[in-house]
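Methods — Computational structure assignment.
A single polypeptide chain was analysed. Its primary sequence is given first, followed by the predicted tertiary structure written as structure tokens.
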Amino acid sequence: MLLGGLVAHGHEGHEHPPAGKVVTSVQVTGNGQFTFETVPGFAAMPDGANVGPTHGGVAVDGAGNVYVSTEANHGVVKFSGEGKFVKSFGAGTKALHSLALVKEGDKEVLIGAAVSVQQVLKLDLDGKTLLTIPHKETGEIKGGFNGVTGVDVGPEGNIYVVCGYGSNLIHKFDASGKLLKSAGGRGKGDGQFTTCHGISVDHRGEKPLLLVSDRENRRLVHLDLDLNFVGVHTKHLRRPCAVSIRGDYVAVAELEGRVTIVGKNGDVVAFLGDQPDPKLRAKKQVPEGKLFDGLFTSPHGLSWDNDGNIIVQDWNVSGRVTKLKKR
């Protein structure tokens, strides 16, 4: 497949695996400097259990541990960098729709959007809740807090929250959870969103910006830290859910069966795990016989790790986590 002269590669040696055969061997995807191979057996749960519905996010700490949020009662699951189960945090962290790793001085914390209870939770790395938004000091939130889908923390400690399943507003809070400003709303124009699904702070330019995954408008959009529209970063994506930024590059989890790597100027440089069957894209109920290593179905959350590999979470009823190891 060609896009603007870019060749999007699938597996080495074949376009995709034979129908009905689950592949558990190493598969290769991507192109050029963004060529990766899968790691079979990564993120296996104890006793062969499922990780649980992976309608959440992925974060990686400074030691390389991987955190995956799920809708299962065990909540957030922690794996080693090699994909070995370490612990889970329990029902109090259930259904964190997004997950990000944040540095606070010499400490690291997790922050996530808990869509089912309409809250943002900040956790320590053992799963203890450090902050909940909204709380009694928040005051009235414009448009309500229904449908909260994504959150990140800016360089001054302010917290940015998107309500992509509700008002399509973006809220700015201070570090204590006090509401400072709201902006956005549903639409297709500048400063409007149709499912502002995810948000991440982008440090690649002269000053930090907010990079919003405007899912149903199929684009990534930049705002400044005071929620003013700056510009569209990338268009014509396949329903972007979340991003992870490393160096000059952004990895984009696209719900319609693909991870895309985007450069500093918004140009597409690589496709990973591109699902060839449109019927398997953006589907939660994909049977095991249709899940193949190296081909995604519904990427929902992802994170670069500390070595330039990518951990990807597919939206899947039983749970699916893939490590793409850089070649």
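Note: The chain has one domain: 2-15+29-326.
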